[in-house]
Design goal:
319 residues; alpha/beta; UDP-N-acetylmuramoyl-L-alanine:D-glutamate ligase; 10-stranded mixed sheet; 10 helices; globular; Ribokinase-like; Phosphofructokinase
Length: 319
Amino acid sequence: MKPIVTLTPNPTIDGAASAEVIRPLHKIRTSDERYHPGGGGINVARVIHALGKPALAVYPAGGPTGAILDELLATARLETRRIAIAGYTRIAHTVFERSSGLEYRFVPEGPLLSAGEWDRCIAALAQVDWEYIVASGSLARGLEPEAYHRVIDVARAKGARVILDTSGPALRAALERGVYFVKPSLGELESLVGHALPDAHAQASAARDLVDRGCAHIVAVTLGRDGAMIVSAEETWHLAAPPVTARSAVGAGDSFLAAAVVALSERRSLAATLAYGVAAGAAAVLSPGNDLASADDVEQIYAGLQSAAGAGEASSSSA
């Protein structure tokens, strides 16, 4: 089976910890520190691997922190293709405040990526045999918003499919070229269309417009506590999020995307793809800090969602 390739233009070392109270000008003592390899595509690859499917994570990394990222990826037993860069790989940190239940996330902008370094990232993609590539996360500094166009061009040359998860100008630029599957959050979709989308009908209509204009064959919109919807030219499905006790929202979108790509690669129905993605997103919020969805939690929640769908609790429309 061909691996699902992920590309992370701006990877990170994700640190997480807990503190009783976070106050300015005080030394904050933390506990339960954890470190994981991160960035959108790497997170997606971690979940794909956890779900038992082959994944190959392609990423640029540099400096002493890049070596730490490599070590974390090796510990996670991921297959990787690293492109060496001059800049230092960034370190992000999430701190959970126990007294309030709030979570604080600190995300640096990351290193500058040169044109030559990006060329080597694209060349690495061209050298691998794949059917699906997940281009996920923010673009590194130094890259133009159209940088993902080159990923799309490599995919088209291979007859392969691009799964996109990014935001802002990079999202807009990539959709102008067209992708197979895109996963905006509700906020990202609203930013894309330039106005609020207050209800499911408006959200589905905006997603369908992207499909009709050839921006994507499939649009999945993550809606936080309201679950997610998925739209193609023929179908529109919405599924509410299952009730779970949330411990952290970190990685929920990446977990959703990973499970959805696995389902697509297995040729599951659009409704089943949505349910598998929602199950993984819900499984991710069960985990503390920057931990992602576990396979056992995904399968258990997915089984419950399938039962609910059979009882008529999922909704579809032609909006």
